[in-house]
Design goal:
This protein has 288 residues and is an alpha/beta fold. 35% of the residues lie in helices and 25% in strands. The termini are far apart.
Length: 288
Amino acid sequence: MKVRKAVILAAGMGTRMLPASKVIPKEILPVVDKPAIQVVVEEAVASGIEEIILVLSPGRTTVLQHFQSAPELERLLEQRLKHDLLDIVRHTNRLARFNTAHQHEPLGLGHAVLQAREAVGDEPFAVILPDDIFDGPRPCLRQLLDIAETEDAPVVALLRVPPSEISKYGIVAVKTVRPRLHQLIGMVEKPPLDQAPSDLAIMGRYVLTPDIFPLLAAGKPGAGGEIQLTDGLLALSARRKLYGYEFEGERYDLGDRVGFLTAQIGFGLKRPELADRLRAYLKTVLSS
C-alpha cells in the first residue's frame, strides 16, 4: 500500500482555545515559533507524503497563506541581509504540493474527511488532525505507514489513556496481533468509563483506504447532526481488517490548554539555543 496524499482537517472553529482562536485559526497558533500546521505538514513530508489536502472553512485562508510566498517580506529580509530568516520563510513555500477542499458547515470529522473525496481519488490516504502533534524517534505517521504497507490494511494511531480521559476519545476493542499492534474489532465514541471496551484511544493520525468514503456518505448523522469518523471506521472494520498501532513517542493535545503549554516546554527543550534558559527558568518555578 503506497500512500502519497495526506488530508489535514483544519476547518474547525477552535472553540477549545478561545479567545486566542477567535481571529487566528488554532492551526496557526505556535509551537515555540512554528505554527502547529507547519509542524504536522513537516511530519507528513518526513513520512514520505507528496501532496497535502487542506480541508478548510470557506473564507479562512490563513492556513493556506502560511505556505505561500510572501514577496514583500522576502524582499525586506533580503535587503537587510537576514538570509537565515529568509531561508526559514522560503522553507515553508517549498514543503509540499498543496490542494484544498472546503467544509461549509461543522458537521463532524467524518463529514470533513468526506469533503476531500474528490481530491483524494481512488487511492489510500492519510488523515491528520493538527490538534495532535507528536515527538518521537520516528514521525508518528511514518510508523503507521510502515504498518499499512506491511499489513496492506488501514491503520490508526492508538494511545493508552487514564480512566479520567476515557470519555474524551474514541475507544477501541481490540485483538492483539503483536506488541503495540492490534486488530480493531469494535469502537465507541466518548463512552462512559463503565462502558469503555479498553483504555486504548484513537489519536489524530489515520491511514485509510478510499472505500471509507461511501461508508461516510451513507452514515447517519449523530448528536448535533455530525457524521462521526468513528462510525465510518467501525463500518470499515466490518468489511476489511483495520489495525491500531500504539505509536512510539510523546503526543501533545494543542486543543487543550495544558497540552498547549506542555508542547511549548517539550519542543522548547529540544532547541539547543533555548533549552538551557528554559530549563533554568523551570527550576526556579519548581523550587518556589
